Amino acid sequence: MNNKLLEWVLRISIAGEFIGHGVFAIQGKKDWIGWFAKFGVGDPEMAKNLLFWIGITDLAVALLVLVRPIRVALLWALVWGFWTALLRPLVGMPIWDFIERWANWGAPLALLLYYGWPRSLKSWFKVRGE
C-alpha cells in the first residue's frame, strides 16, 4: 500500500471528525449544553460560550492536521477524541456510544504511531521526518 495514501486517509479522517465536532460545538448543540450541567456548569449561556471556544479549538486542530500534523496536535486529537467518546456513557448514554466512537481516538493514535512516538519534548512539535 502507498504510505502517503494511508497518511492522507488518516489525516482527512481526523480532520473530518474535528470539523464535525467543531461545527456542532460552535452551533451550541443542545445535548452538549445539557451535558455541561452534569459536570457543574449549570448556566446554559456559559456552557454555550465554552462550546464555542471548544469548537474553535476543534476547527484549529482539524486545520493543523491537514496542513502540518505536528505530533502534539495528534496527541490532543487522541486525548480529546477519547474523552468525547467516553463522555457519552458518563452522561447516561449506552456504552455502545463509546465503542462506536473508538475511531475518534484510534485514527489520531494510528497516525501518531505511523509518524513515530516522540522521544523528546522537541519532537512533539515536529512532523515525522522533520
Describe the structure.
This protein is mostly helical and 130 residues long. It has one domain. 75% of the residues lie in helices and 0% in strands. The chain contains six helices and no strands. It has helices at 3-27, 30-37, 44-67, 71-90, 95-100, 102-115. The longest helix has 25 residues, at 3-27. The protein is elongated. The model has no long low-confidence stretch (mean pLDDT 94). It comes from Candidatus Yanofskybacteria bacterium GW2011_GWA2_44_9. Keywords: Membrane, Transmembrane, Transmembrane helix.
Short description:
The chain is mainly alpha-helical and 130 residues long. Helix content is 75%, strand content 0%.
Structure characteristics:
130 residues, mainly alpha, elongated
Q: How many runs of DSSP E, i.e. beta strands? A: 0
Q: What is the structural class?
A: mainly alpha
Which assembly state applies to the chains in this document? single chain
Mean pLDDT: 94
Main sheet? none
Percent range for β-strand residues: under 5%
Choose one word for the global shape: elongated
Question: What is the count of structural domains?
Answer: 1
Low-confidence stretches: none
Order of helices and strands: HHHHHH
SSE layout:
Layout: H1 3-27, H2 30-37, H3 44-67, H4 71-90, H5 95-100, H6 102-115
